[in-house]
């Protein structure tokens, strides 16, 4: 009963302290795809991902009800760092959903326009507002509506102390007439958050602040992500000297609070703990490392297999360049790609469970085989062109001068004249299950079988390769079928032998695949990339570094006259694939189990 009454009181006092409109809320999940498109189309950095912002303490004065409720301590504001556009997880400030959505659009435009980071906060946002209104006049009406709505939620200046009143009057003047305020008057406390502007003091990630970026603990970066998709600020600290997590004594004040150090073996324990809820109220989560990191445990598991059980390496490897996006430099001979061949792949027939689907695909693709085409009006050919002969005789009999034309017809076979190379991602993530019986690698294997069956029916030249990586010195490039090899039981045995590998250094694999494809004498050259996630590796290839290197490799392939196209089963592929392949350069398969059937049909559409 006490808990029930307490819950009712908490809801009542919280609703009374902070007037929000959850029924009219617009979430980032709802607008996320639109946000990315708008940000990039309005001139924002196309390499930035769009993610939810961490709530930060604003330090402004709170009302009595807010202090009683313990609310309004933090606010989710918009900011950018080197890799991410951070937007509020949800906006429910206004009683109308269209206004909440308009605020998202305005913040995206403000972030895309950019401003001089060296300017003071109030000048920076005023100038950004002026730039947006000048570049996009259509947003003027939205700004006027949002400005009036925001001003109605802000505290009245006459109810504030002298310093805070001057601050509030300056902010109101800056909102009403952008560019009219030069500085923010000093006060004891910061002003109330201005939700129409960008963050006054954006949290800096460790990478942006110049601190060491250890790839082994990349996941413990500047933000930690919870199950509710909300991100929390974090910092790395040195491991405390104390070897005991709890210091208990008879004194009540010695009982630890959540603000003190508790040694939790979180790097090596994956179990969810219900005791983690109090951490959601902390401003910053401190993360320390001891000698038992997850990376050190994984290092043994991800070590290379012994030469006797591993695939057969061919040659000493191939040195390839790699793009460093921060230096804007193509680093020559930076990676080593190792071609490999399955050591113990035995010739196999097509798996029985794919026979019916393969038969149907072969019948469908048989219509794409080279067909006989008759060319009329030829001066030499296997048959007379009756139409041309009749026309010639009519012209002669009518007294007209007969035009010089051929009286024969000849037939030729119209060749599709194309070559396709399919590059399959065989990284460790393909070992995950998509159903009770199937893993991603099983779906990829079936896809390669059916794709080969379909293309064999058309006579198109095609090749199959797979790749994974373990840092830049060991990029494993698995040869499944070369262009000159015929698809047969031996190739099926190689496909059946594929297994999950390591990581996804995609740029180097695309560069080598492009070199193989460009050698083919064909008019159309299609480079199909089959993957289940973003480019990544154990070293600095994680994050934007890998994305930008992959993007440059794709651009190089296009300059060579190839057509790269990505097929992914990553549900979040739309967040980063437009930056890599362009809007029309990829497709996301929402149901991975449908990939074996969908890929051949997609190929038919791409090459018709």
TrEMBL record:
<dbReference type="InterPro" id="IPR036465">
    <property type="entry name" value="vWFA_dom_sf"/>
</dbReference>
<dbReference type="InterPro" id="IPR051928">
    <property type="entry name" value="NorD/CobT"/>
</dbReference>
<feature type="region of interest" description="Disordered">
    <location>
        <begin position="199"/>
        <end position="236"/>
    </location>
</feature>
<feature type="domain" description="VWFA">
    <location>
        <begin position="425"/>
        <end position="580"/>
    </location>
</feature>
<dbReference type="Pfam" id="PF00092">
    <property type="entry name" value="VWA"/>
</dbReference>
<protein>
    <submittedName>
        <fullName>von Willebrand factor type A domain protein</fullName>
    </submittedName>
</protein>
<feature type="compositionally biased region" description="Basic and acidic residues">
    <location>
        <begin position="209"/>
        <end position="236"/>
    </location>
</feature>
<dbReference type="InterPro" id="IPR002035">
    <property type="entry name" value="VWF_A"/>
</dbReference>
